[in-house]
Write a structure and sequence with these properties.
The structure is a homodimer.
Chain A lengths: L9 H13 L2 H7 L4 H15 L4 E3 L4 E3 L1 H27 L5 E7 L1 H18 L3 E7 L2 H9 L5 E5 L8 E15 L3 H4 L13 E5 L4 H12 L3 E7 L2 H9 L5 E4 H10 L2 E5 L6 E8 L6 H28 L1
The first copy, chain A, binds a DNA duplex (30 and 30 nucleotides) through α3.
Chain lengths: ~325, ~325
DNA sequence: CAGGTTCATAGTCACAGCCTATCATCTTCA
DNA sequence: TGAAGATGATAGGCTGTGACTATGAACCTG
């Protein structure tokens, strides 16, 4: 490890990054809460130390040089790491306290959160979770940008290279209007029964759409043109007789109560998704999040059991 | 990006890492070239800022706490990154390394780049050039906006107030279908021969169109309605007997090989364009780019000679 | 118990880094 | 065309951080 004095400071890196972001010394100085001359001076020192011009500036505008681009990219990385370190320090007093920002996809949030928040409040009374609901890809981008600490989504989606902790499997069931021939049978549903049946699916961008679609096209079902933007809408339309659909079992308890639906489980191989908590690799929250996953898993499996019971009643 | 002041410094991280490594304040202070009290004071500040005790110390020994282990692991990572940044700065002191974004017009790129990239790789092995192909006016706007570092184009176009380095002249030649009366003569072509001849030209927006058009209208030639979008298309159409055209000599070697063309040079005054590298005034890359121009010029004149040889064979 | 460790504390000082005020340019708009 | 309003650079002065030396307190070792 190099123990020699570093020729630059974290503060200087922040200044450089701020200027690169706003292409303005004044604006950057304002955001960094220093005067513009101070910022100018620090950047001058930094350029001197590096022996490289980072910014091309005249009296009307600022541009980042080729060298500047490379260096500032790296500076951003370092600053993110320092933020992580701060975060780590803050948490190391008490890992599961403070505020955690967690993303969650819509087809999970409505059904899991009500029960989960209660369990979390009980397990970690000093922890506040800020839930952010959006589609998988948006959440993953926010996660990467450091705007989220973790995200709760389906493992089957394209989630890239992230750390993960599995909460549990969520099998899909067949939902049909009451009185529909497919809903009448008592045996588990076979994929082959879906051949040429009209199914309704979620709109583009919802990962549950992709997962259900994969199964349906394998079964040679026929997708109707209309696409719902939430599972609730989907359930309403099915109840209205527009067609049949797949629902994650997680949603059944709520949706079958709101709308008149017949629910049948599928025979092996059961289509399913795997609910998972994901976070950045090398996140300082790693161990805390693993602990959190255990708590979520416990709450989820309790919910599953109750759902199982509810299903038997129907 | 968090722009708030960081509660710690890189120096403090070094101190902490050194202590963790040697489990001794004195030894660590010595290696960091500071007095032991200075190091003690900084670590005390750091622990205060973090709100966590990093070291368990009494007068006979030093131990790293559980929190300290985590934090110092992360601190090591950050210090490695800062070393990388320093290294990066050191390398970028050599302006002709890293990535340069250079624009180039289509009537140059296809013919010059294959040879040029090889020459550049050889001359500047640590330089990566990202070539961006577009029309002159688009390139100049990108250059002005800082999205490009330089652009390779024809001096004869309207290029505004930019810094420039001339690569070399690119004379135009007369290209006719094989068997065309204008192609039969062995003497250099006169502008007057083009009177009332049907010529094909590039589409609007290509600067080569403007340059060729200036010459042709001076010669009272007659432009056919059809306009090609690339020199290759143009050559194909001429070979097909649709008319005659002007080609930059740079393109002859490639195009005359693909299509059956007769090529004649022009008599004085030879119509031509001047291939030029341009960049922003006051760009910090100025001296590097002048050096680059010299390299490009060398590669271009070698290409010219070979093209001269090829032309004699035809 | 003296001498040699260890890290912590006290007191002093220099300079890095901040501030305000001002300059030199360039753009904008009346 | 000229005044007002940007922007970044420069000048000069102040202050607080982080360095130093000297010393203190606790602990081992011969």
């Amino acid at each position: 490890m190099n123990l020699g004095a570093h020729p630059f400071t974290l503060r200087q890196l922040q200044y450089a990054v701020a200027v690169a972001e706003w292409l303005s010394f004044r604006k950057a100085a304002e955001l960094c809460h220093v005067s513009q001359p101070s910022l100018s001076a620090q950047l001058a020192h930094m350029e001197q130390a590096f022996g490289v011009r980072l910014f091309e500036r005249d009296q009307r505008r600022v541009l980042v040089t080729a060298a500047g681009r490379e260096l500032i990219k790296h500076a951003r990385l370092i600053l993110r790491e320092t933020d992580d370190l701060e975060e780590l320090a803050h948490r190391s007093r008490d890992p599961l306290s403070g505020t955690l920002r967690i993303g969650v996809i819509p087809t999970i949030s409505s059904y899991l959160l009500p029960r989960l928040t209660a369990a979390l409040r009980k397990a970690y009374p000093r922890l506040t979770v800020l839930w952010v609901e959006d589609k998988t890809q948006v959440l993953l981008r926010s996660l990467e940008a450091g705007m989220l600490d973790a995200a709760l989504l389906a493992l089957e989606a394209d989630i890239g290279d992230v750390e993960r902790g599995i909460v549990g499997p969520d099998p899909f069931v067949l939902a049909t209007p009451v009185g529909h021939p497919l809903g009448a049978k008592t045996s588990p549903a076979m994929a082959s029964e879906l051949k040429d049946v009209s199914v309704l699916l979620l709109d583009d961008g919802h990962c549950f759409r992709e997962q259900a679609l994969a199964f349906c096209s394998g079964a040679k079902a026929h997708e109707l043109e209309f696409r719902a933007t939430s599972l609730s809408t989907l359930a309403q339309m099915v109840a209205g007789g527009a067609g049949v659909t797949l629902l994650p079992e997680l949603a059944v308890a709520v949706e079958a109560k709101r709308a008149e639906l017949s629910i049948r489980p599928f025979a092996q191989p059961v289509p399913k998704r795997t609910i998972t908590l994901v976070w950045r690799k090398r996140s300082p929250l790693d161990s805390a999040l693993r602990q959190l996953v255990a708590t979520i898993r416990a709450a989820y499996s309790r919910t599953s059991n109750q759902r199982g019971a509810a299903a038997r009643v129907i």
